[in-house]
Write a structure and sequence with these properties.
The protein has about 350 residues and is α+β, with helices and mostly antiparallel strands. Among the domains are: about 70 residues; about 80 residues, Immunoglobulins (Immunoglobulin-like, Sandwich), CATH 2.60.40; about 100 residues, Immunoglobulin-like (Sandwich), CATH 2.60.40. About 35% of the residues lie in helices and about 30% in strands. The strands form five sheets. Strands 12, 13, 15, 16 and 17 form a five-stranded antiparallel sheet that branches. A four-stranded antiparallel sheet has the order 6-5-8-9. Helix 3 packs across helix 4 and helix 5 packs antiparallel against helix 6. The chain is flat, with a radius of gyration of 28 Å. This is CUE domain-containing protein.
Length: about 350
């Protein structure tokens, strides 16, 4: 495959998120135009899978193309297997129930019971039939492009998302099972001391420990390579907030969480009143809170940002977050520090200060 494709905007999420909404939209438009090159190169793959593979490969184009080639081969094998299965299940054509109606003419008659399946159809075939029926209904009312998008949302996209999550989960569980370590964390104000010890096999690997923001693991606060020092004491200073201590496995390019680290977090209580959420900041560094974001708790891709409310004009440590008509489900509120705030989005100097209780909006 030609490797001369133009790479898309290789910007760190923290850089993109600190832009104003208008600047952010402009970048996203360029982002979509660049990623279209991969869509054309792999027409059988779904856009969401190409996008996720690009992210997992660290936005490296060559690595992304390699992984997409593997996905394409798996998809081709799966389609070939389904075609073979369908071919086996087709009823054999038999020259039965042929009657002579005169004048050298014949008519073939099949009893209605022959049209019924003689054995349960596989689940995959049922989904295909349902998908076809829905497609026929949508074709009468929607343009072809809308019909195609609806099919992806209902079937293939969700299935692939689930498979990718399952694969990542299995890899993390395998790492967690094989990893031998002992970690002790001591917090004194903003001073953090981590005492770590690992198995001697770590000497021959390029793995490391990292402190990441609990909201976004792409916001790495600090890291420490394990290498030959399989036993060490790591001292660092952390801002008030919520963090995770992660072990990063270089071979699989994935990380697992060893411990959570709380440094004087903000405590919040959220309740619903009429068409808004009432967020009460009860304790912690409340004066450092710049804005509170609303996030979904469940969903195939985890917590998703909805909207936010800043602390300007806050009275009695209470923030009002208006709800939109589509804001339904289970939510959580998260407070962020006011360090280097830009447009209400995370910058490299932003820190998660605390989470609220979960609340369901019907």
């Amino acid at each position: 495959m030609d490797n001369t494709l133009e790479p898309r905007l290789a910007l760190h999420p923290s850089v993109v998120n600190c832009l104003t909404p208008n600047q952010r939209n402009e970048l996203l438009e360029q982002y979509n135009s660049d990623i279209n090159q991969l869509y054309y190169a792999f027409p059988k793959l779904q856009r969401i899978d190409i996008e996720k593979t690009y992210q997992l490969c660290g936005r490296n184009l060559n690595n992304t193309v390699t992984e997409l080639v593997k996905l394409q081969k798996e998809k081709d094998k799966k389609e070939e297997k389904n075609q073979q299965q369908e071919h086996k299940e087709l009823p054999k054509e038999e020259n039965v129930n042929v009657h002579d109606v005169g004048n050298d003419n014949t008519i073939k008659y099949q009893p209605p019971k022959i049209l019924m399946p003689l054995f349960p159809l596989p689940r995959k075939e049922e989904e295909d039939i349902t998908k076809t029926e829905k497609g026929d209904d949508l074709e009468k009312t929607l343009p072809p492009s809308n019909m195609e998008e609806q099919e992806v949302i209902l079937t293939e996209s969700q299935e692939k998302e689930f498979n990718n999550e399952t694969e990542q989960k299995e890899i993390k569980e395998l790492i967690q099972t094989k990893l031998k370590y002992d970690v002790q964390i001591n917090i004194n104000g903003n001073d953090c001391m981590i005492t770590a010890s690992f198995d001697r096999n770590e000497r021959f690997k390029n793995n490391f420990l990292q402190i990441v923001d609990r909201y976004n693991e792409n916001l790495v606060k600090d890291k420490r390579e394990i290498g030959k020092s399989i036993s060490f004491v790591w001292k660092l200073i952390l801002e008030d907030g919520e963090y995770e201590l992660q072990y990063f496995d270089s071979e699989h390019s994935t990380s697992i969480t060893l411990n959570q680290i709380d440094v004087n977090p903000v405590k919040m209580i959220v309740s619903k009143q009429s068409e808004e959420l009432i967020v009460y900041l009860s304790q912690g560094p409340i004066d450092k809170v710049s804005w509170v974001g609303l996030y979904t708790v469940d969903g195939p891709i985890g917590r998703k940002y909805i909207h936010y409310q800043d602390t300007k004009g806050m009275v009695d440590n209470i923030i009002h977050i208006p709800l939109q008509p589509n804001d339904k489900g289970l939510f959580i509120c998260r407070a962020f520090s006011n360090n280097n705030s830009v447009g209400g989005f995370l910058s490299s100097q932003y820190f998660t200060l605390g989470d609220s209780n979960q609340i369901e909006v019907e």
